Amino acid sequence: MANNKVIGETEPIDKYVWNMVMSNGYDCVFSVDISTHAIEFYHVYKRTNPGSAYTKIESLGAPPDTFDIFMGYLHEYVVEEEQAAFTDQLKVEYICNEINERGNFVRTVHMNFIGERRSKSFKIFPHEADPGKLLGFVYDISAALDHDWMTDEYARLGFMENADRLLSEIPVEREQYSLVYTNIKGFKAINDLFGEQSGDMVIFQTRDILRTLLRPIIMGRLENDHFVLITKDEYLTEQSLNSLASQTYSEGFKQYDYTIRCGIYRIHDREVSIGKMIDRAKLAEKSVSDNITASHVIYNDDVRVNYVKQRVLISDMSKAMDTGEFKAYFQGIVDAGTGQIESAEALVRWQHGKLGMISPGEFIPAFESGGQISALDRFMVERILDFNTRRAKECKFIVPCAVNLSRIDFYNTALMDYLLDKYSNYPFATDYVRIEVTESAYADLEKNASDYLNRFKKLGVRILLDDYGSGMSSLSTLENFEFDIVKLDMGFIHKIGIQEKAEIIIKSTIELSHALGATVTAEGVETREQLEFLRDAGCDHIQGFYFYKPMAEEDFSKLLG
Ligand code: C2E
Ligand code: MG
Ligand code: MG
């Protein structure tokens, strides 16, 4: 660079280039003469004085080979792992070849300037005003990549790079640190109920509470409602984690309770990359969902083994579908008064070639996260339709049958269209295929997804609220949608004769549902005592081993006669 002659600040500038500078806000713009490799700078961004950015225009003159000199100068700043590629590729011939093939040359190069790592985007195009030249732009994209403008925390990249640097500087052997990945359970419902602005407020509130309770040494927001942070283990107390679990957002008279769930990765081994640590903490967080009592999980081998098993199940799924390993089982549901079967629930079973019979509790969560659940649920609807159609043709007794839909299903337009088509064109489907949706799935549905339920309902389909009373139930679910049938969770039913409070809740839920125009099915009824209590309490339908277990199609067919 020192060899370059500075011609001055008033050098006339191509209008084309000037427009590019103004409209794009680049760090630095230059042209390269393809035959002489002479570089000319048209614009230099003054980082030291942001107020004067884009005002000073310099041209350094154009002695031959100055492009190579300039790149050689930059090379010293390029991070070690990218230096070889930089030297090989930032050559005029290489760039010209790539431009001939693709029309442009684009690279992101990471550089260290005085201990600060920066990301520079290099974009080089043919110079439209001068065919003998190329036009190049260097644009500093560090801030765009590293920073989360909304929360003023790091974004993913900024977190990864700075966490890495930080960990290499602190004595992790003496003090124990953990990486924490967080998830706001119920975030979608907040966006839905209060609007996106309130969603943003919840994000801010979460950031502040995480800072106060967990005192991170570094924190970032990965996406949406997910924060990631590193803190000393001593701050990850039961007390602070429990406080995170019970948060309230209030706006005017409205209030909403939400939970901040955490996946924790204990940093014992500095060799594990930050990316891996985040993945593991995230896996741990994902396994919180199955555990209603705790709001955090610490990553360990069980979490990993479980994950591996889920991956295996996901990869076996499509073959299993083709080879008929999935079966629809049917569980009869009876009228509480007469004990006669009046409907059924279809429950999927997987007769796995190697692992034997696997219960839905094991593979449904995997299929939900892997995206295969909707294919399976469509298969179940087809089984129900097929079963009932065959029996109807034979003039046999048929009963309405409910299919379980997962939250994910309401975002699968193909499945929703399939159901809308069946329900709009086949009254038989409308009357005999009911839909069960759990309360937690319903609460997490965004408006356009829950609209499908309204459309099904308008077509005359019966909609059932599954597992009511499990986890965090809320009366607003019953207020927001007119469910036809409320299914009382078996957790309550199993407390009959044991816990008086549960009995009171069962009785009043039955009354409340009736008052709202819904009937009630008790799930998991196993004893005579439970049955009698439920009958006296006015429960309408009974499902449970006391009457029938889920059974294969042939057995259920025999049972119906
Ligand atoms: P769910 O919809 O609440 O289904 C009722 C569960 O209770 C079934 O478990 C059933 O076998 C069990 N059950 C019924 N009566 C009794 C009883 O008296 N005592 C006891 N202890 N259990 C009883 P299963 O078949 O293991 O299914 C578990 C969950 O998996 C279901 O809960 C449902 O949420 C989901 N699931 C099942 N099949 C499907 C499906 O085809 N698609 C989707 N998306 N989810 C399904
Ligand atoms: Mg169900
Ligand atoms: Mg249920």
Q: Please identify the oligomeric state.
A: single chain
Distance between the termini: 93 Å
Query: What's the average pLDDT?
Result: 87
Strand share of the residues? 25-35%
Shape, per Cα inertia axes: elongated
Helix content: 40-55%
Spans of at least 5 consecutive residues whose pLDDT stays below 50 are 1-14, 46-57
> Main beta sheet, described?
8 strands, mixed, barrel
Spell out the CATH superfamily of the largest domain: EAL domain
Q: What's the number of domains?
A: 3
CATH class of the largest domain: Alpha Beta
Strand order within the widest beta sheet: 14-15-17-18-19-20-21-22
Q: Which ions, cofactors or small ligands are bound in this entry?
A: ligand C2E, magnesium ion
What's the total helix number?
Answer: 22
| CATH fold-level name of the largest domain | TIM Barrel
Radius of gyration from the alpha-carbon trace, in angstroms: 32 Å
Task: Please identify, by name, the CATH architecture of the largest domain.
Answer: Alpha-Beta Barrel
Strand tally is 23
Give a quick precis of the structure.
The protein is α/β, with parallel strands linked by helices and 561 residues long. The chain is built from 22 helices and 23 strands. Ligand C2E binds next to strand 15, helix 12, helix 13 and strand 19.
Structure description:
α7 (187-194) packs across α8 and α11 (301-322) crosses α12. It is elongated and about 100 Å long. It contains 22 helices and 23 strands. The longest helix has 22 residues, at 301-322. It has three domains: 15-145, Beta-Lactamase (2-Layer Sandwich); 149-299, Reverse transcriptase/Diguanylate cyclase domain (Alpha-Beta Plaits), CATH 3.30.70; 317-560, TIM Barrel. The termini are far apart. The strands form four sheets. It has an eight-stranded mixed barrel, surrounded by four helices. Strands 8, 9, 10, 11, 12 and 13 form a six-stranded mixed sheet that branches. A five-stranded antiparallel sheet has the order 2-1-5-4-3. The model is unreliable at 1-14 and 46-57 (pLDDT under 50). It is of the alpha/beta class. 43% of the residues lie in helices and 25% in strands. It binds ligand C2E and magnesium ion (2 copies). One magnesium ion is lined by residues 466-467, 487, 523.
